[in-house]
Amino acid sequence: MPKAIRIDAYGGPEVLKLVEVDVPKPEAGEVRIRQHAVGLNFIDIYYRTGLYKGSLPSGLGFEGAGVVDAVGPRVRHLKVGDRVAYGQSPLGAYAEVRNVPAAQVVKLPDGISFEEGAAIMLKGLTAQYLFRQTYRLQGNETILFHAAAGGVGLIACQWAKALGVKMIGTASTPEKAALAKANGAWAVIDYSKENVAERVLELTKGKKVPVVYDGVGKDTWETSLDCLQQRGLMVSFGNASGPVTGVNLGILAQKGSLFVTRPMVGHHVNTLEKMQAAADDLFALVLARKIKVRIEQRFRLENIGEAHEALATRKTTGSTVLTLD
């Protein structure tokens, strides 16, 4: 029988259990995928710890890549044998075989490997909706993006460069700062040594930035606001340091009539058509080699606890995948 990771309670990496599972034939609108690789993301930790709550027992993980081995009724765009990937599915990607709603699955181009597909779908779709939908960058802007050496961050560095955007990234070490710069960031601020708001002011010659993309959360909230121009947009899309709470809306007026949004990828790719369009945008840049998929860590399914520990302690750079071959 195929194996999968399940949790019966919220907690640390110790709650992750490798179990055998029965995977039935796909129902109407579903496909069954024999997976070759699975992507890991910080949001997986939120669901493991209970910061984001689902129903227990539960699987974990949102993205993967593999081959369709069964197709349910009313599925028209996929067939058995198709190479596929997905980045926004029901919980349960940490599995050798699984059923997935077909509307969330796209064909994987031949020029992109299974590992690359698994590594880039959720992170790449995140960069796509941030840059092309939430605040549609036109080119020539100067922007701020926190955690520029992370999985989403390194894609964002490359995407910004492809768009002709000057991206100021933040990073926690000189090594991570160098990595972000090598991937296309215009400038990188080492926040362990530099004051981010002051440095942004210097880099922009006093103008600040029209948009900040912040996946860190509470630790960077006020700093991000201080980096924005009047009527600028704060895009708070993650909680790596914990959720932003207790916000006084009056501070937005005090700091320049600022706008704030808390977007989610699922709301931007909630139909097959939207998913396909976003994936096409992403795949085109990967195939043109304007975005290189950086897989810096690989773990086996049975070593998922080690993978989560590395992710939680910020010892990772780029993307992390589970290999199932």
UniProtKB/TrEMBL annotation:
It is an enzyme of class 1 (oxidoreductase). Pfam families: ADH_N, ADH_zinc_N. GO terms for cellular component: cytosol. Residues 11-322 form the Enoyl reductase (ER) domain. It comes from the Bacteria. CDD domains: QOR2 (cd05286). GO terms for molecular function: mRNA 3'-UTR AU-rich region binding; NADPH binding; quinone reductase (NADPH) activity; zinc ion binding. Its EC number is 1.6.5.5. The keyword Oxidoreductase applies. Keywords: NADP, Oxidoreductase. InterPro entries: ADH-like_C, ADH-like_N, ER, GroES-like_sf, NAD(P)-bd_dom_sf, QOR-like, Quin_OxRdtase/zeta-crystal_CS. This is NADPH2:quinone reductase. It comes from Pigmentiphaga litoralis. The lineage of its organism: Bacteria, Pseudomonadati, Pseudomonadota, Betaproteobacteria, Burkholderiales.
